[in-house]
Amino acid sequence: MNKQLKVLFIGTYVPKECGIATFTSDLLNSVSGDDKGVHCEVIALNDPSETYNYPKEVVFQIQRDRIDDYYRAADYINQSDADIVCLQHEFGLFCGDAGDYIFAILSEINKPVITTMHTVIREPETEYLVSTEKLIRYSEKLVVMSQTAVDMLKDVYEVPEDKIEVIFHGVPDYPFNDCEKYKKLLGLKGSPLVLTFGLLSQNKGIESMLDALPEVVSRYPDLKYLILGATHPMVKRNQGETYRQYLKSRVSELGLENNVIFHDKFVEKEELCTYILASDIYVSPYLSREQIVSGALTYAMGMGKAIVSTPYWYAQEMLSDNRGLLVDFKDADGFRNSLLYLIENPEECDIMRKKAYDFGRKMTWKNVGKKYTAVFHKALKNYNTYPKIQNRFNFLPDQLPEVKFDHLKLLTDDTGIIQHTNLGVPARRHGYSTDDVGRALVALTQLINNGEGSDELCKLITTYTSFLEHAQTDTGHFHNFMSYEREFLDERGSEDTLGRAIYGLGHMVSCPYLPENMRTLAHTLVSRSKPEMENLRHQRAKAYTMCGLYEILKKGVDADEFGSLFNSRRDAVKVRDYLAEKDTFESIFTSHADSLVDLYEANHKEDWNWFEPTVTYSNAKLSESLLLAYDYTKNKTYKKIGLATLDFLTEIQWKGDFFDIVGNQGWYSYNGEKPIFDQQPIEAGYLTQAYISAYEIVREKKYLELAKYSFEYFLGRNRLKAVIYDYSTGAVYDGLNFDGMNCNQGAESVICYLMALSSLNKHTNKLFSTILQSKVSDEADNGALQRTKNLLSANQAE
């Protein structure tokens, strides 16, 4: 038995009052209606503030002006079991320059895309040219509804002919009919009945028809001209009913009140078809020559109507071979003469109607559905036979970048680190912060431990240590913010500020390459903070503090040093004080670890392995602190929860070939949607550190590989494929927004990059020689998804 084909449509959808919404619905029904081997679902586009009671086939909704929704839709598609994506494309459906928000989906998904092009522009402006060329690139097949569109794609956009499929706009299948019975059904009197229908807007050109009517009505006073359709929602929103009122005024001026009927209503398909069947003549007086398709004209042809139209491209092609009459744009005399010809020559009119009807048999929805299904199968076979191997990250380097301090030194003066920049230039008005200084000490001491230039780094560390010594308050806490004029702006910083200071100072204490006086001062500053560390309430402050205390406790006092302390009575006092302080640090360390365990036990659920009901900032540091607690105490509960929460962060952020960091536009709450932007580089840096700690503690290779991937976030392995690290200066851009990179390059960003790089550098040889001998490919065979599962489940120990 053949596998059921699963098709996911993207477009507007009923009950939205929109021509493409109706088209998408009709196409879906034509594809799935009689063919049990095809299952169809829809991703529906909504205008801002719109809500609809969609039918069950709508499985996902996009608010067209929210770029986050497009990215989420891409994630949904990749995780779905859809075989094919069928996109209904018209530039105005999507926001952005020439509708380029749609590429947030197309650039990310791993399914073949069949694009129905409802608009093709012969002479596009630059943004429309670029958008169309990208659309062509991302589409496996392009479906157009006329040969004219094929010629444009080949001549203007150089599209290979075998990539283009012509499938006519569909029409309902009705028998060739007598209008009178449908007029009676609708209670319409008058003959002939002339019809124009569709959403009302100025490009309909209806005024040309009104100007043509007086002479026709003078000969045939029973003629009725029915203008059927609501005002286009976008026109109504921006201009109200100005155009409709203008037309009504024109009707009064011409004395046509008894002949012109306005039916201000969006009619459903069945009712619409009844109106078309009741009409004698359909008129299409559009003003734009560039119109490449018209559903209204197609319906009129398929139901065998006599048609008068302006010569837009679609009408020229469809009405050739005497299937209708063409009149020049705004040519009231031409419309008048054409109407009179059709009314006064019924035999010729019937011949024209029959030709249109016979041609329309090619366009019945049943036939259109079969052709689309054939295209789906052909495209899928071609896609699977010749998989699109597009390594989206083939620009990534084969080795880790060399360490550069240029930007960090640019931000550092004789006081500390200036917090922010304006386009890379230090912004002095923002002053300095203890938060940055504490983390910078971690990065620099790790780099010294890795053998980087100690003299240059010691100079920076001296400046930063001096800042912390000045920032510490009488209670042992720390000020955070200092102005450029060297005035502290707060009485004390947050608990996180204290934790980050201890984090940096602990790394100083354990760094054997620092001068003894600097290590002693760092230890003294930590000791002064004992009362404040004991009373911490916030979990991230506890985690930072644990990471700093871990460095001190792990270092301890070596045997020779410990023995020499007994040489005198005075040294015996030192031993006693040292042991007492060690006990205090251990007590604080384990107390904070236990409180994180309690927090996890209170908040985790079967599908939510996290410490809180919301994933916010500095997330990986919580997991890492418990792993360090296990390494020091060997308490297996710490390891279990540390790994479970770290794996949870992987699960919600690893997309198979890149990390999609939780954005800080609302954070990520249980049972909520994960915000995509504003992504902060520090999260990637902390993930890298946490993965390295996990690898060093449990020796599972997956953590080393994940550490490389999270670090490569800086180098372009991210949702936007944006290289946020500047190889020439060592600067790092401040984050990813929906419209690209944040072009500022602050202290936090470069510091967290250096922290991540220094963590990875310890394992460079193993990383590139035994684990990652080839780059990750972005293959269309779901290899990336399988890789995700492997990374999450791999337990092979080294």
Q: With helices defined by DSSP (H or I, 4 residues minimum), what is the helix count?
A: 31
Residues in helices, as a percent range? 40-55%
Cross-sheet strand order for the largest sheet: 3-2-1-4-5-6-7
The average pLDDT score comes to: 89
Major pleated sheet: 7 strands, parallel
Question: Tally of extended strands?
Answer: 21
The termini sit apart by 45 Å
Alpha-carbon Rg, integer: 35 Å
Shape: elongated
Runs in which pLDDT lies below 50 for 5 or more consecutive residues are 557-566, 769-798
Please identify the oligomeric state.
Answer: single chain
Architecture of the largest domain, CATH level 2? Answer: Alpha/alpha barrel
SS strand fraction: 5-15%
Global structural class: alpha/beta
The CATH topology label of the largest domain is Glycosyltransferase
Task: Give a description of the structure.
By secondary structure, the protein is of the alpha/beta class. It has three domains: 5-170 and 368-385, Rossmann fold (3-Layer(aba) Sandwich), CATH 3.40.50; 179-361, Glycogen Phosphorylase B (Rossmann fold); 406-793, Glycosyltransferase (Alpha/alpha barrel). Helices cover 50% and strands 10% of the residues. Strand 6, helix 5 (147-156) and strand 7 (164-166) form a beta-alpha-beta unit.
Give a nutshell description of this structure.
It is built from 31 helices and 21 strands.
Tags for this model:
alpha/beta; single chain; 6-stranded parallel β-sheet; Rossmann fold; Glycosyltransferase; 798 residues; 7-stranded parallel β-sheet; disordered C terminus; 3 domains
